[in-house]
Design a protein that fits this description.
Elements: E1 2-4, H1 23-29, H2 35-68, H3 71-118, H4 130-184, H5 187-221, H6 223-229, H7 232-283, H8 297-319, H9 321-339, E2 347-350, E3 369-377, E4 387-393, E5 398-403, H10 409-417, E6 424-432, E7 444-447, E8 455-457, H11 468-473, H12 481-490, H13 494-499, H14 517-531, E9 535-539, H15 547-560, E10 565-569, H16 573-577, E11 581-586, E12 589-592
Parallel strand pairs: 5-10, 5-11, 8-9, 9-10
Antiparallel strand pairs: 1-2, 2-7, 3-4, 3-6, 6-7, 11-12
């Protein structure tokens, strides 16, 4: 017997983000996929700075030529100014392009990471609410990507750019460089204080955003119920209150950002004013520092033009401090989302005759049996078990689970497909692998449920605003036309499609063709058939159907699931009647209704 534990088979924990990592470390790690683009952006920003220095030097040289009435000097200055300006603009454009590409790369990796953790694929288990998941996928990812695009290149270019500007100023007139160094020493302390001041505001804004997203999502989900209860106005007031709290939190963040920026502006303005006063008085002959070189119009004007350039990176970093705190909150939230979606574990290969089967297991190709051994599941904070089960589901047969509403049927199904883990006991799938060689027995496999490896059909079928073909192809994007036709036939969809004006290319959704509930269920069956899963898990697949539609859906299911294992939760007598085994959920306890048929 060989055991192969795969705690994170797809590496969906993302770029260097192990569980429990602080938000700051997560934030830094998330920039890794775009390091190359940010390096290029930093280099382009440095080049832009150097050519900007040349541009200001040419401007000062031209000004001195005008004062001296030197046409040659004026012409040289104008030509150099034009060339340096063109090169500086090119460097700035390149830096912006590299930053945009870096932001897209960070966002792409983060969204793929979150999707890999939340969607029922790659053996992940999601317990995250849809509002939090949507907020993470859309807003939080952009917060992190935009922050890195703004700051990462600047951190690479700022030291080189500031040292280059300071060195040029020191060569021109070292007392001015000393003034810059002394005043810039005050900025890091102010930036730190501003950052601490902004952190609390960012936390409040994040909490208010979460609240508003949850209220909006719940309102749209329950709009029909709210209308029937006459509670739309009350819900509107709740929504308005959540929006007002977010508005107040956002304005608080903006005020803090404005205050922190104002502090930096005061320091920078003071430094430039001191240098401007000193240079002006030096040019007039009122001030003379012993050992300092003399100032000409060219050197004095160039020093004044370069002083703002020296502080420009620091001002940008300071203005982004509130953005950093917001990105740190977003990074922590993204990490929490993914770390709360653990991977399914445990694959056991029995009777393995060769080393070949110790490799990664292939897609399950034989009917899957399910065993629930001493399984108990209790929701956090609940006072009793929601599910208690100790049964086995035979491979290749239909098993119906009946019981009153709220008895725990849907929770049981989520345990079977691996979307939840039991509080105690174990759920295992059993199947056989292809025969490794003639004369050798086919190895049997026991593994933990693998989300994404089973076919799930629930009470609601979501149809996208797309063609019938696109809606079916959701089950398998690379499906051929022949495979799609087989799925259509297996689901009994051909008569439906023949009635549509463009057949499979007919558009569904808003502005397109509508589908009845029964027809939509058959599209769901076609999707599941196309996936090729050998375990089908159905949650009330005939709910809200009339007798004729229910009969059609049952017939389609029987045809599509030939040779597969089917576990179906249902209140329908017609659906339970076609099952080989019937189980009953009674107050959360699963037991056989017909022991004679039990496997």
């Amino acid at each position: 017997m060989t055991t192969n534990e795969t705690a994170d088979p797809a590496g969906t924990r993302g770029p260097g983000a192990p569980a429990g990592r602080p938000a700051e470390a997560r934030l830094a790690a998330y920039a890794a996929p775009a390091r190359r683009w940010f390096d290029l952006a930093g280099a382009a920003m440095t080049v832009e700075t150097l050519f900007t220095v040349g541009r200001w030097g040419a401007l000062a040289w031209t000004a001195e030529g005008v004062m001296r009435r030197s046409a040659a000097q004026e012409t040289q200055g104008v030509l150099v100014f034009a060339a340096a300006s063109a090169l500086a603009l090119t460097g700035g454009w390149a830096a912006g392009e590299f930053r945009r590409r870096g932001a897209r790369e960070v966002a792409r990796h983060l969204r793929r990471w979150i999707a890999g953790a939340l969607l029922p694929t790659t053996r992940r288990i999601s317990e995250i609410g849809p509002a939090e998941a949507a907020l993470g996928m859309v807003d939080l990812v952009d917060d992190v990507a935009d922050y890195h695009a703004e700051i990462a290149p600047l951190r690479r270019s700022a030291p080189v750019s500031m040292l280059a500007v300071l060195a040029i100023i020191a060569v021109l007139h070292w007392p001015a460089a000393i003034v810059l160094v002394l005043t810039s020493a005050l900025i890091p302390l102010n930036m730190r204080l501003a950052g601490l001041f902004a952190q609390h505001g960012a936390d409040r804004q994040w909490a208010a955003t979460q609240r508003l997203n949850a209220v909006v999502l719940d309102s749209f989900r329950g709009m029909g119920t709210l209308r029937e209860l006459g509670a739309v106005d009350r819900r509107g007031r709740t929504l308005a209150g959540a929006a007002e709290r977010l508005n107040r939190a956002t304005m608080s963040v903006l005020r803090r950002a404005f205050l922190s920026g104002m502090i930096i502006d005061v320091v920078v303005t003071f430094s430039i004013a001191v240098n401007a006063t000193y240079i002006g008085m030096s040019l007039l002959g009122y001030v003379r520092v012993p050992g300092a070189p003399g100032l000409s119009l060219f050197s004095g004007l160039l020093v004044l033009l370069l002083c703002p350039m020296y502080f420009a990176p620091l001002r940008t970093l300071a203005s982004a401090f509130h953005q950093r705190e917001r990105a740190a909150v977003a990074a922590g939230a993204i990490g929490d989302i993914v770390e709360h979606t653990p991977a399914a574990v445990g694959t056991i290969v029995e009777h393995t005759p060769t080393a070949a089967t110790r490799a990664v297991l292939p897609r399950l190709s034989a009917p899957v049996g399910v065993s629930l051994h001493a399984v108990r599941f209790r929701y956090p904070g609940a006072g009793h078990d929601t599910v208690t089960a100790d049964v086995a589901v035979a491979p290749g047969r239909w098993t119906a689970i009946t019981g009153a509403s709220g008895a725990g049927k849907s929770t049981l199904l989520s345990l079977i497909v691996g979307m939840r883990r039991p509080s105690s006991g174990e759920v295992r799938w059993q199947t056989t692998l292809p025969q490794p060689a003639p004369g050798l027995p086919a190895p049997s496999v026991r593994q933990a449920p693998a989300p994404g490896e089973s076919a799930w059909i629930g009470q609601r079928t979501v149809l996208l605003d797309a063609t019938v073909l696109d809606n079916i192809r959701l089950g398998r994007q690379d499906a051929t036309k022949q495979q799609i036709q087989q799925a259509v036939d297996a689901a009994g969809l051909r008569p439906v499609i023949e009635r549509l004006p463009a057949g499979l290319d007919s558009r569904l959704g808003e502005g397109g063709w509508g589908m009845s509930t029964g027809e939509a269920r058959r599209i769901a069956i076609a999707r599941a058939f196309l996936r090729g899963a050998r375990l089908w898990v159905l949650d009330e697949p005939t709910a809200h159907l009339d007798a004729d539609s229910e009969r059609d859906v049952i017939e389609a299911l029987r045809l599509a699931t030939q040779g597969c294992t089917v576990v179906v939760a249902t209140h329908s007598f017609a659906l339970a009647a076609v099952a080989d085994t019937v189980l009953v959920m009674d107050n959360g306890r699963l037991q056989y209704a017909n022991p004679v048929s039990a496997p």
